[in-house]
Amino acid sequence: xxxxxxxxxxxxxxxxxxxxxxxxxxxxxxxxxxxxxxxxxxxxxxxxxxxxxxxxxxxxxxxxxxxxxxxxxxxxxxxxxxxxxxxxxxxxxxxxxxxxxxxxxxxxxxxxxxxxxxxxxxxxxxxxxxxxxxxxxxxxxxxxxxxxxxxxxxxxxxxxxxxxxxxxxxxxxxxxxxxxxxxxxxxxxxxxxxxxxxxxxxxxxxxxxxxxxxxxxxxxxxxxxxxxxxxxxxxxxxxxxxxxxxxxxxxxxxxxxxxxxxxxxxxxxxxxxxxxxxxxxxxxxxxxxxxxxxxxxxxxx
Amino acid sequence: xxxxxxxxxxxxxxxxxxxxxxxxxxxxxxxxxxxxxxxxxxxxxxxxxxxxxxxxxxxxxxxxxxxxxxxxxxxxxxxxxxxxxxxxxxxxxxxxxxxxxxxxxxxxxxxxxxxxxxxxxxxxxxxxxxxxxxxxxxxxxxxxxxxxxxxxxxxxxxxxxxxxxxxxxxxxxxxxxxxxxxxxxxxxxxxxxxxxxxxxxxxxxxxxxxxxxxxxxxxxxxxxxxxxxxxxxxxxxxxxxxxxxxxxxxxxxxxxxxxxxxxxxxxxxxxxxxxxxxxxxxxxxxxxxxxxxxxxxxxxxxxxxxxxxxxxxxxxxxxxxx
Lengths: 301, 322
Hints:
The complex is a heterodimer of chains A (301) and B (322). With 301 residues, chain A is mainly alpha-helical.
């Protein structure tokens, strides 16, 4: 790949090539080469840990002990093994999927309704709501509230209940989700909403038919933000659930000590890859919408 | 009258054709309908964010112990007095601050540097590729990041020590660095992990800021003879200042209130540098004795208020002048 073709910028004030014929290709493009080298070094640093765990999941046991990056033999059986031999794993994985899906769905509905109302219905006290949401972003709510949330869940009889996790999980990223949806709906012209209303559509119908299609990118952002938060949540699950079978994947993975037997390194790595892949895949497919939404919603918000 | 109603986005036409009493009813009904949209979000927000904070504040003035059977008593500032006299309170706050100091510069400066480099990539395809790679760590959930790095830092079989011992021979198996588990290296190790995690996300933030700077501004400065550093300092930096301010304040907040990492990497050893105010609070609330949650609440409040004070201070000094 020629770096020159990718990144040629005019050098201000530099004399034309004709006057300096001795300058080679390398010297002319030194800046761009160094730049791309540094960028790619950073990219390597970002990708290397992930590549390591991916390769680890297909190593044979002796290769895993040897520690070389590239295995001498590939062994793809670990993926099947972990599901057959680790009894609680399918349950934990199901718990994670169930809790995360419910959380994402509920938070998205809450955030869309609230964002729409804050911008286009302008209830009394909207300013107060927005201020409270903003303050909650700066206050360490997650840490301090754990004491009281334990009490609440105990009172509701939801200790050791996987479904019970959904309630506190919804609020993990609720404030930021509402604020993102709010700034997304601010991009929808009032006149459009008014027009739909005058044509006799109810607020529900207006939101569904007119509003939602226009905030698509923001939806992608809050989908991913909430997925990441719920899929990896540790503190609440660790505190509220004692029962191994009721726990979600992050707590199980954090507790697993790598070494011998069922938690040998390649097995652990295989579980890791299974858990981490859905998020990366979803993001890669949705990245165009995600970036648009990020620019519209987060940066302006 | 209709004018003010219209500005509140109430259906004007229905009001104009109604008499006075039903006019009020319509306004009231539409007001309730408006709030109906907010009810789901507010219910969750109040129940699991606002109420817990006030409940914990209340608890901090009582001798509440979760596992004790008797009723709790109002003890005014006893918990706060005890906490302020507890050397662990101060050292645990200090440890959190130490971690913040290790983490904050790297997580601002490295992404800024990377963003300035990537901003000059002119090939759109390559720029997109870089952006996707940058955001990959950001879409990996927190705990999975910590677990991955816990394995990488592993003393015996982690790839980092393998590289240092077997590949380049800088250390032997006897004196290889012990990255985690309460050693002095633990906080720097966690800071490196956090910088790695935020690198891409923060770079994207700065890239968005750089994209908002008109391209002819730095060009004009260069033509006037400014070198790259001067262009950065006088043209780019002032325009990135708002983004930088938000990032510094937000990341200060996350760094001071780290808890999951310390639970996973450090545990409840009081001598460990990871025993910060968050772990101190958690230890008191869920591990020790009869779960002295009144005392734990006071610890949490002290920690939270201390860091809020610094954040307000930061917001004040970063406030744009003029």
